[in-house]
Amino acid sequence: SGSPGPTRTQSLHGPSPVTTFGPKACMLKNPKAVMHIQDPASQRLTWNKPPKSVLIIKKIRDTSLLQPFKELCIFLTQQKNMIVYMERKVIEDPAIANESFVSIKKNICTFREDYDDISNCVDFIICLGGDGTLLYASSLFQESVPPVMAFHLGSLGFLTPFNFDTFQSQVTQVIEGNAAIILRSRLEVKVVKEYRENGSVEEMSLVTNGNKTMQYQVLNEVVVDRGPSSYLSNVDLFLDGHLITTVQGDGVIVSTPTGSTAYAVAAGATMIHPNVPAIMITPICPHSLSFRPIVVPAGVELKIMLSRDARNTAWVSLDGRKRQEIAYGDSITITTSCFPVPSICFRDPVNDWFESLAQCLHWNVRKKQDHLSSEEEEF
């Protein structure tokens, strides 16, 4: 029997990395380290105090969700004594405003996106619907995000591992603090627009120090493209202040590992497990045969600007929303956010991901070869 292998610590991915190299060399301690890497097997949910409030995100205008939504609300309010938060437009749906909801409305709090700050009111989040509901939940929390439990109703999504059939036992497990979580890193994106004389009055009111800055948290990807123009987009890509390359083509996708299975994979990128701390850069139809997608470390700062000789402006969108035009002099700065989305796993971070690859993309699903009989082997 050989000696036991290195033990895995609670906070590191695999065996503890050594920090000394030979008799004299060692790693300089870095007080500005961006993140430590979790061992996926050790990521478990725990509560400091029992959870009391839950935010339900429901896909709007989907009648197939009404019955599950009602069952979930009744279960949470009546059996679990939870306070339920939801958007006002969800409860105002005429299909919901019937008798069965009157009894529980006293335990329901409503809010309006972009008006009411619920970031300190919600202990955890339940999403009903497709992957878009989790992206939407992420957008409501620009800083710390409560744990998210996502149910697929219909087709299985990448971000929605739970089946609604057993929701009562599954939600109970989460409330009791018995669940695996995966920390999905987000991108912190700053869009800085130069003040222009011909800007509208509304734009001018948002200007500070001559520039207008907007900040976003992005779970899937930032897409910079050529918009309605027929010319190639032409944008400069900087990494930690150095010009890396100019992207000539339809555009570029900067994605998280979570976003690697969204637009990026359709544009020819590889798929990265969400536990890998990285940022992926994928060109969209580049006008170059040698521009392959690249993966850079999570700590770097990327900056995208329109090239001086670009024939047209570019457009940026963040997780498919907030689409806006980028002119010469504007910039988009992207780095890994300090605020990941803690997403509750059905089994565990690795199994869930491979299950979703098989179910969503039919990854490496093929008919098996028959084995050879002994007679055939002779030929």
UniProtKB/TrEMBL annotation:
GO terms for molecular function: NAD+ kinase activity. One of its GO terms (biological process) is NAD+ metabolic process. Residues 1-19 have a biased composition (Polar residues). It holds the Pfam family NAD_kinase_C. Keywords: Kinase, NAD, NADP, Transferase. It comes from the Eukaryota. Residues 1-22 are annotated as: Disordered. InterPro entries: ATP-NAD_kinase_N (IPR017438), ATP-NAD_kinase_PpnK-typ_C (IPR017437), NAD/diacylglycerol_kinase_sf (IPR016064), NADK (IPR002504). Its EC number is 2.7.1.23. Belongs to the NAD kinase family. This is NAD(+) kinase.
